[in-house]
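pasting for ref
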Amino acid sequence: MSGHIGIRREDKYLMERRTPLTPSHVKQLVEKHGIKVSVQSSGKRIFSDEEYAKAGAHITEHLHDCDVVFGVKEIPVSAFEPGKTYVFFSHVIKGQAYNMPMLKQMMTLGCNLIDYECISDDQDKRLIFFGKYAGLAGMINALWSLGQRLKEFGLTNNPFLPIRQAHHYESLEEAKAEISEVGQIISRKGLPKELLPLTIGFTGYGNVSVGAQEIASLLPTMEITPKQLLSLKRNAALPGNIMYKVVFREEHLVRKKATENGCGCGCGADHALTGGNKEAFDLQHYYQNPDNYENDFEQYLPHLSVLMNCMYWDQRYPRLLTKEFSRKLCKDGHPTLTVIGDITCDPDGSIEITHKGTEIEDPVFLYNPDSDKATMGFKGHGILVMAVDILPSELPRDASKEFANALFPFVKAIANADFGKGYDDLHLPQAIKKALILHKGTLTPKFEYIFGYL
C-alpha cells in the first residue's frame, strides 16, 4: 500500500510560518518510499511552494485526494473531510473548551486524529515537539522586552537595546551571535547600577526551560540556588558584569498546606508556619494530591528581574503569580520584577495576569494591578508580560527542520496504515498508536475521559 499525504497551509495565525515536513523530507518520502505528497499552496510558509515542487510534491489549493493530512496548529471546523486522518496539535487533551466544537466535528465525520503532543516512548517521554524552540524564542523575546521596558524607565543606553524580537532574525545562529555580543558588552562595561542584581528565574527543567537557558547562557550568568536568591541584596556591592540565573523545581513552587494538627505530614509540627525543617518533598505525592499544596513561590518573586515561565500547568495546581500578589509587588512603584516571559501561556493560568496569548505582531502587554487592566505595548504602570503563544514560529526554519527530523521516521507508517481496521488490529508504531485520540470518529480507550468535556 502506498499512501497519499497532504501538508496543509496554516491559517490560525497570521504569522504562523512553520511546517511539519520540510522539502528535504518530502523528497525522501517521494523518491525512497513511493509516497505521494500534496502541499497546499502558501505564500507565508517558511519554505516556498517552489522548494516543495522541486522536491517532488504536487502543489495544490485543496487536499481532497489525500488520505492523511499533516498540519501544525488547529484546523478550522469547516476543513475536515469524512473518514480522513489528521495529524496536528489539537489541544483537546485538557478538555480545552474552545476546541471541543472541532473535536465534535471530527467525531461526526468519522475522522482519525493523531496528536503530536501525545507521541511518546515507553517511558511516556515526548518524542516530537517544538518546545525547545519555544524556549529559545521566548528568551530572545524576553531580553528584547527587557531592553524596551528599561528604555521606558529612562535607561536609554541599557545593554539589551540591540536585541530584536526573535522573528526579525534570519536564523537562530544570527540571534545567538547578536546576544553574544551583548554579553561581551556586559562583561566589559557592566550593567547599570539601578539593575543590580539582575536576576532571571526559570520555572521548570524540561525542553522549554532548556531552550530558554541556552539563550541566557550567552550572557555572563552565574547560577545560584533559590535560597541564595533570597540573600542577594539590591544595589549592594555585587559584581556589575554578572547576571544571576535561578532554576525553580516543583519543590520550590509549593509547600504542603498547614493543618490543624501541623504541617500535614503527620509529624505534628507546623513547618509551613514556623519556618522549621520541611519534610522531604515528594514529587509524586504532589502530582497525585495537588489540593494538599499551596503556593510557596511568592517569596522569590520580589527578588527576580525576569521570570521565564517554562513549565506545564493545569488548574489542579496552585498558581505561581496571582493578581493579588501582583498588587503587592507594584504597591511602591515599579517592581523589581520587570518582565515575565510566559512561555506556558495559559490564559488566566499559572500566571494569572496573562489574560490571553499574544500575537507575534503585537507580543507584549502591561498589566496594571491597580486597575486590573492590560494595555498592549511597553508603556504604563505594572508588570510587562510577553505571552506569544506560537513562539517557535518566530524561528520557523530552524524549528521546522528539527521537528520534521523527529516526525519523519513515523510518516511512512502513518501514510500506509489501514485506519479502516479495528483499533486492536491497527498496524502502527506504538508511539503513534498512543497518540491516536480518535479512531473512526470514536475516542480511543486512553482518551475516553474527554467525553466529560464534550
